[in-house]
Each structure stands twice: as C-alpha cells, then as structure tokens.
Amino acid sequence: MTRTTENRPGSATDVTPGATPGGTSGSAPLDVRPAGRHALLVELPDAERTGAFHAELLRRRAAGTLPPVAEIVPGARTVLLDGVPDPEALARRLAGWEVPASAADDAGVVTIPVRYDGPDLTDVADLWGVAPDEVAARHASSAYRVAFCGFAPGFGYLTGLPDELHVPRRATPRTRVPAGAVALAGPYSAVYPRATPGGWQLIGTMPDPAPLWDLSREEPALLTPGTRVRFVPVEGGAA
Amino acid sequence: MTAVELTVVRAGALTTVQDAGRRGHAHLGVPRSGALDAPAMGLANRLLGNAPDAAVLETTLTGCALRPDHHVTVVVGGAPCPVTVDGRPAAWGAPVRVPAGAVLDVGAVTAGVRSYVALAGGVAVRPVLGSRSTDLLSGLGPAPLRDGDVLPVGAAGSPAPHPALPFAAPWPAPPAELVLPVRLGPRTDWFTPAALRTLTSATYRVSPHSNRIGLRTEGPVLERASTGELPSEGMVLGAVQVPPDGRPVVFLHDHPTTGGYPVIAVVTETGLAAAAQGAVGVPVRFTPVG
C-alpha cells in the first residue's frame, strides 16, 4: 500500500537528482532535492515518516555506513543533509532506502516536571473546552517526541499533542517569555530554554530550566531531535 | 612567549570575534556563525603564519582601535581602510608590528563593509562548542566588543606554526556590483516561472536592514505560485529565502538553522564572500550556475 497523496504545489522532478521511484510497497519514494552544492533536502509525506527517516540516518551514521555528512537537520516534514562532499552519490543511495512508517520507540525518555501556572492557561482551557484545572492532565497525558530544533539553541519542537488540542499562536507576541515556560503553538509543545520574545501560549513552568541547555555537558541540549518526552505535573505554583 | 592582552580603545559600530564557526550543531538550533568573508580571514592569518581559521576581529564599516600590552604583529585586510599606529600611517593588507602600548587604529572602510584584524597567535577567548565566533542570532560566543574590553591573544609561536606567506598576496577589491552565482532549488516549485526569470534577470540592491544573519535586498517582488505555509525546514548557508514581502534574503553565517519561508536558490561559497562586502545600495544580480 503506497500512499503518496501529499499535495504540494508544483513538482520537484525538475530539480531532483537521481530521482528514482525506488519505493517498495509500504514505503513512499523519497523526494530528494539539492540545496546548493553540498546539501540535500529530503522531503517525507508526514511527521511520522520524517522521524523514522531521521532515526534511520542516525542509526546508519552510528554504524558507520552513512557517507560523510556534517549536519543532519530534521524539520517538520524534511531532513536536511548538509556538508555532503558528493550529494549526487548520496541521493542515488537514498533512492534505494526503505523508510518505515514510524520510528522505533527505543529512544530515551526525558521527563519534564511542569507547574501548570502559565498566564495563558485559561485561554487554552477555553480553546480546549475544559476547565483550567483539567489542562495539566490533558497536556501531560500525551507522549511527545522532539521533531526538530530551531528558533534558539536547545529549543525543541515537540509533536504528540492530539489534533483537537492544537491551538493558534497568541495574536500579539510577548517581548519576553521566561526560561522554563511550557508553551503551545499549532501542533507543537515546547519548553523555552532561555528568556526570549515569543508568541506561543504559555501553560506552565519547568521549575529548573537549566538542564535544557547546558554547555558544560557533552550534549548541551536536553531535547535533541528524536528524544521522547513526558510532562509530569508538579505542585507548588500559584495558578 | 609573553601572553599579549589587547585593550579595546574604540570598539566601532560592530566588532566581533570570528573564526571558521561552529559546525555539527545545527540540529540543536545552533547557527554556524564564523567570519562572513572567510577568504579575507584566511589570507590575513596566512600572512602571519597563523592557521587560516585562527580567530580574528571582524569590524563593520567604522573599524576599531586596539592597544596591546606587549608588541604584536597584525594584518588588517578585507575591506580597505586607513591603518595607523599611534597616528602614523601603516600598511593595510600586510604585516604591521604594533609596539607595546601603541594604539592600532583600523579606520572607516573606503569600500566594502567588513575589515579583518588578524593577530599573530590569534584571538584566544575561550571557545564555545568548538568555536570562538560571536553568534549574533543565538548569543553564543563572546559578546560584541565594547570600549575597555580586554582580549587575550594566543602565543604566536616561533617559528610560526604555519609558513607565513612571504609578501602580501593580492586582495580582491570590494565589489561595485554583487554578482552572486546561485544554484536553483530546493523550493523553486513554490514560485511562478515569472519569479524565476525575475530572480535571474532583475537588479536588486543591498538593503540597509542587512546584517550577519542575512543580506536583505530591495527590488522586484518574487511572486509565489502558492500561498500555502511551508512547514519549518533546515536552512543552508547561502539560502536565498523569500519572505512574504517577496524580496530575496541571502542567509549569511548567523542565519537561523530552520525556517518557514521557501528557498528559491542557494548562493555559492564564492558568492558569499562577495556578499559579505556588499555595502548598502550596491546592485545585486543573481546568476544561475549548473
């Protein structure tokens, strides 16, 4: 069963090197586009397959079977492979890959304690059609995964929120969102690693946000792409 | 060797520490950063016998002034500018010995945007994630220089760790017109055929809103074939991103690692070095390469 019903404007065929409909049943062919002389942008049909393809890239890199790639940068529906000495050769190899529908659940789980005391808690409760004191249980009951990072070092975009709980950004962004703010926008949840301007809806606070970005660690980011995340409500904040 | 410290007498409009930047952390949201005119940094370092990517100072339009507490040899290159030591004219683009306590003044550029001050031994601030570069987007690395700051300089080594070039090599002149070679894609299909023709035939100008994050342009609008929203995706150095106002922005070294506007083309490495020296108002043309 091949499902390639993705509806993107235009076609990528005129800029796709080594485009080969090499997908087997159950695995959509990869859409591989050049991005300059030394990078490839690989587009996938959905977030789940993007996560699975990213996990497969990391697995092959760890096993030493991936050609040299300086950066593997996942996005919402893409993975960018940058710093590739021979992108044409890599594109030909990728054409033969089979990507499973979703990543294996073998990545580590990070637990984030949250005081559900954010200034947008009641707005989000209204959007969800629940009482404010039910937001914590609804948000914390989902299993999340870091889809990609961006915006600031260590800022992870977490998927896993059910469709019916997606909320828009605030109409007016805040000039300062504090470090540790637990926030929602569209399909994503996030925890701000440091104070920045931001337009997301703030529903809670991670009491000690320092581990989110710690340059004294070998891996400075707590929420690296692929990491699974659970939010755990904790007491102690004024609601 | 005696450790040299530099006192910043005049920081200038924007002077930052730069080297080859941070690679391998884009997936964490960490920009690449690094000297915008990498060949200029490399040539200035090689004239001193430094490694080509030893940390240097990158100035912006108005230069800077520095006072070392021990004598140090420097090269000022990149955008041409007057150079003086205690008020006396000194060489641009070639090694200059600055005595202990003397003031090296790197003047305002006469063309281009960014001059580079390389010092024998290199700027020796503590690296962050493998680089000493100031990243203006994420705030990683040392803050931009301020008057009165003191910077450590590394041991120059004797003999120099790399053979110094025997004399000044020719420096490219800052461009009177930026001709930026581009490879089309990855998102050409988000634009109308007319937009592709416009990109590769129209003349844009460097916008005053340009910075280390991006070279912004003024000129004709690039029309999209679709008004949809692009899900966030990874961005490469040199990406020509087209925001909703339709004017192309060339991503420079402090660019965000992911973005949600379509990239119509990517500027080549040689084009990026030229873009680093494109002053406000300079004409910009994009020319496709294979």
TrEMBL record, chain A:
Q: SUPFAM superfamilies, per this entry?
A: Cyclophilin-like (SSF50891)
Write out the GO MF terms.
Answer: ATP binding; hydrolase activity
Top-level taxon in the UniProt lineage: Bacteria
Q: Which UniProt keywords apply?
A: ATP-binding, Hydrolase, Nucleotide-binding
Q: Where is the composition biased (Polar residues)?
A: 1-14
Domain Carboxyltransferase: start-end pairs: 30-223
Q: Which Pfam families match?
A: CT_C_D
Glycosyltransferase among keywords: no
Tell me the segments the record calls region Disordered: 1-32
Q: What is this protein called?
A: Allophanate hydrolase
UniProtKB/TrEMBL annotation, chain B:
Gene Ontology molecular function, alphabetical = ATP binding; hydrolase activity
Pfam families found in the cross-reference section: CT_A_B
Q: Where are the transmembrane segments?
A: none
Give the source's domain of life in one word. Bacteria
Q: Which SUPFAM superfamilies match?
A: Cyclophilin-like
Record flagged with keyword Nucleotide-binding: yes
Q: Which UniProt keywords apply?
A: ATP-binding, Hydrolase, Nucleotide-binding
Residue ranges constituting the Carboxyltransferase domain according to the UniProt record = 27-290
SMART domains attached to this UniProt entry: AHS2
InterPro entries cross-referenced by the UniProt entry:
CT_A_B, Cyclophilin-like_dom_sf, PxpC
Q: PANTHER family under this entry? A: 5-OXOPROLINASE SUBUNIT C
NCBIfam families per UniProt = urea_amlyse_rel
Name the UniProt record assigns to this protein: Allophanate hydrolase
Biological source species: Streptomyces ruber
